[in-house]
Amino acid sequence: MKPAPARETPDTAATAANPARRPETPVGSGGPGQEAPADRARPGREARVSYGSPPVPRAARAGHKRQEEPGGTGEPSRVAGRPLAGGSGWNDDGAGAEHGVRPAPALGDEERGRLLSGAHHAPHDLLGAHPVRGGVLFRCLRPYARSVTVAAAGLRARLRAEGDGLFSGVLPLREIPDYRLLVTYEDAELELHDPYRFLPTLGELDLHLIGEGRHEELWRALGAHPMTHQGVAGTRFTVWAPNALGVRLTGDFTYWDGTALPMRSLGGSGVWELFLPGVGEGALYKFEITRPDGGHCLRADPMARRTECPPATASVVHASHHRWGDAAWLARREGGRVHELPFSVYEVHLPSWRPGLTYRQLAQQLPAYVKDLGFTHVELMPVAEHPFGGSWGYQVTGFYAPTARLGTPDDFKYLVDALHQAGIGVLVDWVPAHFPKDAWALAEFDGRPLYEPADPLRAAHPDWGTLEFDYGRTEVRNFLVANAVYWCEEFHIDGLRVDAVASMLYLDYSREPGQWTPNAHGGRENLDAVAFLQEMNATVYRRCPGVITIAEESTAWDGVTRATHHVGPSGFGGLGFGLKWNMGWMHDSLSYLAHEPVHRAYHHHEMTFSMVYAYSENYVLPISHDEVVHGKRALVSKMPGDWWQQRANHRAYLGFMWAHPGKQLLFMGQEFAQGAEWSEAHGPDWWLLDPSYSAEPDHRGVRDLVRDLNQVYAATPALWQRDTDPEGFSWIEGDAREDNVFAFLRFDADGSPLLAISNFSPVVRQDYRIGTPEAVPVWREVLNTDDGRYGGGGVANAEPLKAEPTGWHGRPASILPVLPPLATIWLRPA
């Protein structure tokens, strides 16, 4: 990943981009991060219960409060039914304004102030219904209401106004009834279940696991979950904010005023909870947090499983209704061994692959395209929600939500399902290394550093203007480990490619002396990050059989793909990844290809050095998005020479890459030799494949080669079955620097070979003797990147090549193939 351009992050930028949004109303006493989302009601949104007043002028709302001071007039309270204890003053016919409703004991100034300011940790102790001497005390907080009436079977009693939106009274009841609240505003009356009559929705086990940082299904405990609780349908809202003085819930169901819905703190867990009856799927919400300094800020839900479409920033209540159809795929995956199977990856940026397509529309096109080209997997650049499209998804604010730009979470599941049913695995880029500083997201979430380290030097990521995670905090580590499991289990993802691992592993990453603090042993290794990565990998592999994790790690860290319990020379256990991007191979080989052929002799080792360490880790050979942006030029444009030579180099390189030990990854657009750098604004240059374009055959030919590479690769176990076994590879000619020639053998588990020969010079080499194993008497050409169908010159070995008993290259036999210019050929036993 590379740094993206600077961007606007405040909600003011979002409002400017979307004039339809109402101006946001401050909810706190000022200070950094204070903001409030607009009323984002959408035409056609499903009807749902409202917990706030209709939008009326603030002055009028204040008037509503004042006219309901104690002693105000209004309709009489009515309590019908059998006489109850403490019934003095009872009047069954309802005569008299307050008959049957006695004043409740007044709240103390301190508790009243905390409740009204959003700084109370136990609002359920004050609000709701509570048995008291002589009856049941009812109290509710309904700002801007004219009146509140308790209604139950045989009971209808109007509460007394206490001011500031508080209404209360003591009814002469023996027990708490199954009641509702009738809340009257200036132009509406709402009938609601009282949220403060419900027991907590989280159990002791959930809270214990959260406290230990071991809740592997954290998304089931935190966030917004539609459910039925105590026989009533609604949504449970929970959030971890241990430093908050109080948390209130706000959303489109309160007209973005959170005063009426303070949440309760569940012991010492740092978790705040509220069950809200009548609110369900599609509701927009945020958490209004009272910071330790007494100020207020609005935060999106870190555990939100659905979000508004950027630039809007609210979280959305979501429940999945997708029915999976990929059971056969998952069964095959569980029994497979990724390292010993074909694995060629097409890397995709979904928003720009076919700009304008939704997840469901992509499901109609992407699986067919990838299957036609023969790739075994797609790797999706980050799909988690992110506010700025120019970050390509690498600056995440919604770690549990697929981006809403392309549809809903169920729409994304539909796409994954379609890919699986087409026989294509799905890898997703995952970004646990850092997060942006947007004031409505994770930064200083509850008023203090929470997800990031408290030390500003440790918190600030030096490269991308973001914040690093505090891997030493158990709850933060749990948030990330559970997130990895979430994508694999909830979305059936087949693998996670973990971005920017090196920046996590080193305390001095991109930092100068004096800008970092050594670990407890005086070293530069981030021990907390090491422990996190080990835990994440161990958990994913234990819970999700067949899933693969892949590290983008650009240094020589020891044991990236070694098991976590195997301690290496560095004293660390392995990180536990399944595969690692081979960044060294990528940089060296591209450097070699960038030279004119006449100069390549002096850089020959750049193509052979990778085999010195090829089996130190389990590798992926990546030609990724990072190599075709920011002035690096597209793959074909890196090549020297004229247009024909550039394409020939491009094709020869792909042939060399597919034969080299390791798995393959190719970024979109490079499969048809797009000459321009990739841009997220318009995606691949598909017009190059338009038959009306004169150079279309040049680009179609390269794409045809990629298809044939994948087909021959999949049918040739020698190219993938022993990718991690040194016995599966043998050099034949690795030092023909003056000729620019490379030749090597690959072997499958039974010893059957494939011979790959690359000629990176622009001349035809006739009868170029190559040593071969004695056991193969005849070889035939199965792939030639110079084939005329691919746009090459058509120099080929049309007839089988018989081995001669002439020893060469230390082999007992040899053959005399013709080597096309700037080309790679593959030979197999005839």
Quick summary:
Keywords: Carbohydrate metabolism, Glycogen biosynthesis, Glycogen metabolism, Glycosyltransferase, Transferase. The protein is α+β, with helices and mostly antiparallel strands.
Q: What fraction of the residues are assigned to beta strands by DSSP?
A: 15-25%
The total beta strand count reads 35
Largest sheet: 8 strands, parallel, barrel
Mean pLDDT: 89
Q: What's the total helix number?
A: 17
Q: Could you say which structural class the secondary elements and strand pairing correspond to?
A: alpha+beta
Instruction: Provide the gyration radius in Å.
Output: 33 Å
Can you give the helix content as a percent range? 10-25%
End-to-end distance, in Å? 44 Å
Poorly predicted runs are: 2-47, 56-98
Strand order of the largest sheet: 18-19-22-23-24-25-26-27
Q: Looking at the structure, what is the overall shape?
A: elongated
Mind explaining what this structure looks like?
Its EC number is 2.4.1.18. It is an enzyme of class 2 (transferase). Residues 347-707 form the Glycosyl hydrolase family 13 catalytic domain. Monomer. Pathway: Glycan biosynthesis; glycogen biosynthesis. The protein has 830 residues and is an alpha+beta fold. 21% of the residues lie in helices and 21% in strands. It has 17 helices and 35 strands. An 8-stranded parallel barrel has the order 18-19-22-23-24-25-26-27. The chain has a 6-stranded antiparallel sheet with strand order 28-29-30-35-32-33. Strand 28 and strand 29 (741-747) form a beta hairpin. Helix 8 (359-373) packs parallel to helix 9 and helix 11 runs parallel beside helix 13. The radius of gyration is 33 Å and the shape is elongated. The two termini are 44 Å apart. Residues 2-47 and 56-98 have low confidence and may be disordered.
